């Protein structure tokens, strides 16, 4: 979600920059100063997202590590459950 937001902000910077450039060459009805303000604001938001990206990446890494630790336990539990089902099945067949 954070990555998608960063990509959208980068896209906004690109679009507003293009609009700002176009408005200085042609009269498209866009205020060049407003476009530049939007560009600067989006760049400011991009700078602010760096901390959020680092936090999100850290959380993602911690989640991956938890899953890696939990996986062998889950596999062992599944093997134990299957062995118990197999034992019950064999007992019922006797």
Automatic annotation (TrEMBL):
Lineage top rank: taxon: Eukaryota
Where does this protein have compositionally biased stretches of type Basic and acidic residues? Answer: 77-94
The family database entries (PANTHER family) matched by this protein are listed as: RNA POLYMERASE-ASSOCIATED PROTEIN CTR9, RNA POLYMERASE-ASSOCIATED PROTEIN CTR9 HOMOLOG
Region feature Disordered, mapped onto this chain: 72-94
Query: Which residues, by range, are in coiled-coil regions?
Result: none
State the GO CC annotations: Cdc73/Paf1 complex
This protein's name: Uncharacterized protein
Q: Which GO terms describe its molecular function?
A: RNA polymerase II complex binding
What keywords would UniProt list here?
Answer: Repeat, TPR repeat
The Gene Ontology biological process annotation of the record reads:
regulation of DNA-templated transcription; transcription elongation by RNA polymerase II
């Amino acid at each position: 979600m954070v990555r998608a937001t960063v990509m959208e902000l980068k896209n906004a910077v690109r679009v507003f920059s293009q609009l700002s450039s176009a408005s200085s060459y042609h009269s498209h009805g866009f205020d060049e100063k407003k476009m530049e303000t939007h560009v600067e604001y989006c760049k400011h938001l991009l700078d602010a997202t760096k901390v959020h990206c680092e936090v999100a990446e850290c959380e993602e890494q911690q989640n991956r590590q938890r899953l890696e630790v939990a996986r062998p336990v889950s596999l062992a539990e599944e093997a134990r459950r299957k062995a118990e089902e197999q034992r019950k099945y064999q007992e019922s067949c006797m």
